[in-house]
Amino acid sequence: MGTSLGDASGGLHYPRSVSLARLPTPLEPLGPLGASLGVELWCKRDDLTGAALTGNKVRKLEFLLGDALGQGADSVLTCGGEQSNHCRATAIAASLCGLRSSLLLRVEDPSAPPALHDNSLLARWVGADIEWVSRAQYADRNRLFAERAEALRAAGRRPYIIPEGGSNAVGAWGYMRAVEELATQVPFGPLTLVYAAGSGGTGAGLLLGVQRLGLPWRVVGINVCDDRDYFVRVIGDICDDFAARFGGATIERSAIEIIDGYVGRGYALSTEAELTGLRDIARATGLLFDPVYTGKAFLALQAELKKGTDLGKRILFLHTGGIFGLTAKAAEMAPLAG
Ligand SMILES: *Cc1c(COP(=O)(O)O)cnc(C)c1O
Fold first, then answer.
1. Which one is catalytic: 17, 75, 84, 199?
2. Exposure check for the chain: N or C terminus, fewer CB within 10 A?
3. Cα separation, 2 vs 205, whole angstroms
4. What number of other Cβ atoms are within 10 A of residue 286's Cβ?
5. Is-catalytic flag, 111?
6. Of the residues 57, 87, 232, which should be mutated to test ligand 1's pocket, given the most ligand atoms within 8 Å of the CB?
């Protein structure tokens, strides 16, 4: 692989990747909003990794597609929810790299799938093959992956499987590289990174990056589905796999900080109070947070600071994108627009 971790200068040696993201993404101060919350607040704009190919998945896909091409794959196979940002990004990135893509998208009733719109429409627009799958099938997705990969091989293709969210050891390199990028943007010293956790790969990459570079930073996730224990396990497992595959120490479970309590009505479901909160943030700052991930995480950060949770004096919120998850909620948003 030509991959080893670190050298005397603390730099990382990355495996093969493809260039997909517009980097570095800007780091912007949220001065007045931070001051109102009693902290120095920054926003890392990973919603600006690209236009349609946007958000945090792009950083992971740089390494995942690099690995796929290195293995001689001609297509990628991945999965996600009906409005998966990851699947949209994978489909676009695959087309850019000359690969075909197949998506397994989770819906309530595969025999009556929703019309294509927002993320699912863009994925299909760039040529992804979409298969609608039920919750039960999705729960057993590793078997589904194996079967679909076998069918693709039988048809003469060479598929590369990307797990949900691109969250595995290879994808984790994307956020390790983001930490290295960030370290050149912020002054040395204590900092707390706050991010939305959905499938764990972003959190794992951030934790590994901070550890490998020896930075005095805390990494705090807000889970937008499942619960705290689930994410400590999933993120810990990705870090273990990373250490086994690429070397270096793994991450202690006790270093994996997750703040639970902000899932609300459930994954990808919003309350009127959440959407109103996001509208007010948009009006105060011009920042568009999506209702599924960044919105829940940012509202959680605000709520935790208001109730006095100690997250340090300098906080960096990672804007992981999700613009098409926002536009997907147009019908719920319009009555609140005033
Ligand atoms: C996928 C996603 C996340 C969560 O990242 P994970 O690495 O899956 O935990 C956060 N924000 C947005 C907009 C996403 O699409």
1. 84
2. C
3. 19
4. 7
5. no
6. 57
Q: Render pLDDT for 193-235 as a digit per residue (tens, 0 to 9).
A: 999 999 999 999 999 999 999 999 999 999 999 999 999 999 9
Nearest partner of 279 among 201, 211, 332, 212, judged by Cα: 332
* 3-class SS letters over the chain: CCCCCCCCCCCCCCCCCCCCCCCCCCEEECHHHHHHHCCEEEEEEHHHCCCCCCCCHHHHHHHHHHHHHHCCCCEEEEEEECCCHHHHHHHHHHHHCCCEEEEEEECCCCCCCCCCCHHHHHHHHCCCEEEEECHHHHHCHHHHHHHHHHHHHHCCCCEEECCHHHCCHHHHHHHHHHHHHHHCCCCCCCEEEEEEECCCHHHHHHHHHHHHHCCCEEEEEEECCCCHHHHHHHHHHHHHHHHHHHCCCCCCHHHCEEECCCCCCCCCCCCHHHHHHHHHHHHHHCCCCCCCCHHHHHHHHHHHHHCCCCCCCEEEEEECCCHHHHHCCHHHHHHHCC
Nearest Cα residue to atom 3 of ligand 1: 198
How many Å is the maximal CA-CA distance in the chain?
A: 60
211 CB burial (10 A radius; 0-12, 13-18, 19+): buried
Label residue 112 by pLDDT band (50, 70, 90). Answer: very high
Distances in Å between the Cα of 18 and the Cα atoms of 10, 303, 321 are: 23, 38, 20
User: What pLDDT shows up at residue 11?
Assistant: 67
**How many of the other CB atoms lie within 10 Å of CB of 335?**
9
Cβ distance 212 to 13 under 8 Å?
A: no
**pLDDT digits over 285-318, tens only?**
999 999 999 999 999 999 999 999 999 999 999 9
